[in-house]
Amino acid sequence: MDAKRHHAQLLILRWVAFLSIAIAGLFYVKWQPYYSRAFVAAADHSIGQSILMGADAAPPPPSLAAAIGYALAYGKAIWQAMLLGLVLGSAIQALVPANWVARMLGKTNFASVAMAGALALPGMMCTCCAAPVVVGLRARQASPGAAIAFWLGNTILNPATLVFMGFVLGWDWAVFRIVLGLLMVFGLGQIANFMATPKEAEAAGLQMSQLAACGEDATDVRRILTRWWNIFVRLSVRLIPEYIVLLLLLGAARAWLFPEIGPQIGNELYWIVIFAFVGMLFVIPTAGEIPIVQAMLALGMGAGPAAALLMTLPPVSVPSLAMVAGSFRWQTLAVVSAGVVGFGILAGVLAVALKL
User: Fold this and answer.
1) Is the CA virtual torsion 210, 212, 218, 219 positive or negative?
2) Cα gap 81→86, rounded to integer Å
């Protein structure tokens, strides 16, 4: 009886620790700063300069200085959220009971996709900062679709970003993003679940049995904390180096990815396709798409390419895809990436038709 009571008390302690860290971390890194930033957006109709090119019409030429400059600007914007993502991603594996994520998010049905998408809303992280949490969810056997919905939902359905967008770009743009964002998050999530093979489901069930058999629900606080630290270190060592390298490469290649912006970039379909694809590849901080699109529209770019960027810049990027590559089959990530580009093209075409 004492052993059962001790286990129950430890389980409560683990949940309290996880929820306290999540709530306190998100409040400090996301909720409170974004609350204050909303008033700035409402008053100034701006949330700052474009991280892509500042006040210029084009990004700087490819160089080491351009790479380091972008990496520093991006790092300054997201380092706290990245640290929080690593902490939460490892805490999911160390503090959350071994079978909870699998029970709540592990089924390949729409209910798990919908729940994961809803859980993403308070996170409000950029795609790279959400990636460690996605890795943690998959390690605890969240279904592919649920993990994808959580990942995309953090960026595309970010409530703070949508508020900023309404004040800066206009509420028609915000509603436009919400409608297409809901279709993207839950549609691509469900497609990822449809792609799950019987072999993948069998392997997930086997791993859950192994997790339970090896006693991952530790009965000692010190052991739990040690395991948490070890997972945090492994996650950081695995994800951060490749992330930095790819970030530097994209920062240096900005001028190759984005041409000089002006009225010459109109609403032709080929421009929409190009910007949809480039937006999927590039990496930005949370809400970074808003000043980018605002600056491009001010320079005379067509609404079609701008809408394509609005839908494809936030959800995935080359660095974030690399970070989660070990947690999904490559076919799943290829379909999700292609789906993001497809939604970007659809957004561009619709923006032209609706005369946004």
Assistant:
1) negative
2) 9
| Domain span holding position 238 | 2-354
Three-state SS for 62?
Answer: coil
First vs last Cα of the chain: how many Å apart?
66
User: Number of structural domains, the chain?
Assistant: 1
From first to last of the 356 residues of the chain, give the pLDDT tens digit.
476 776 777 888 889 999 999 999 999 999 999 999 999 999 988 898 888 887 777 788 888 888 888 888 888 889 999 999 999 999 999 898 877 888 889 888 999 999 999 999 999 999 999 999 999 999 988 999 999 999 999 999 999 999 999 999 999 999 999 999 999 999 999 999 999 877 776 666 666 666 655 545 556 788 888 889 999 999 999 999 988 888 888 888 887 888 888 899 999 999 999 999 999 999 999 999 999 999 999 999 999 999 999 999 999 999 999 999 999 999 999 999 999 999 999 999 999 999 88
- Would the pTM of this model clear 0.85, i.e. be above it? yes
